[in-house]
Amino acid sequence: MNDQRVGNLKVLSERECRECGEPFLPKPGGYNARYCTNTCKLRRKRAVLKSTKPEQLRNARVRSYNQTKKHPERMAAHRAGCRNYRARAREWLAQYKLKHGCVDCGYSDHYAALQLDHEGEKSVEIADARSSIARLEAEIERGECVVRCANCHSIKTWERKQESRR
Ligand SMILES: [Zn+2]
Ligand SMILES: [Zn+2]
Asked: Which ligand has the shortest distance to the CA of 146?
């Protein structure tokens, strides 16, 4: 027989991670292993918790933040993380605008002159969603946002006002 063994445990063949879909080799004896890494396992757990008990996840975050607040060095790291996160979101939005360009005139030279415009229902101001890529994506989808240059945006806003006056 060419069944490989470690001690008296059979070496298992490759299987797919249930979270990321990547093939992985379970550890000897890991017959019920479903995830490639602990990271994938925890990610799954979080996702399940988020849909079944969101308040539990929220409370855990509040507790953890309260602990962080007690330690200046942890707080400094937390703030640096926030800054980094906001910078990433800013960069993501800039690239998103440049990639799409103005829907009306096609302008795409500089992101500072490009704005997100809600075609659908506005649930948050883009300015408030700007600190998180996930929030930005959600608002773009939900609010049917399009990219408009500052000029076309001004004209569109004027047109909308004219229409609502009628
Ligand atoms: Zn995985
Ligand atoms: Zn334009």
From this structure: 2
Closest CA to 148 of 110, 107, 99: 107
User: How does pLDDT run across 6-55, given as a tens digit for each residue?
Assistant: 777 777 889 999 999 999 999 888 888 999 999 999 999 999 998 999 99
157: in domain: yes
**Is the model's pTM score more than 0.85?**
no
Domain that holds residue 113: 88-166
C-alpha 165 to ligand 2 mean position (Å): 24
Handedness of CA 131, 135, 141, 144 (dihedral sign): negative
How remote is the CA of residue 119 from the centroid of ligand 2, in Å?
15
What is the maximum span of the chain, computed from C-alpha positions, in angstroms?
85
Asked whether residue 48 is domain-assigned, the answer is yes
Ligand 1 centroid to 71 CA: how many Å?
Answer: 33
Domain count, the chain: 2
Verify that 50 and 122 share a domain, yes or no.
no
Ligand 1 centroid to Cα of residue 45, in Å, is 13
Cα 115 to ligand 2 centre (Å): 10
The reply to whether 165 and 100 lie within a common domain is: yes
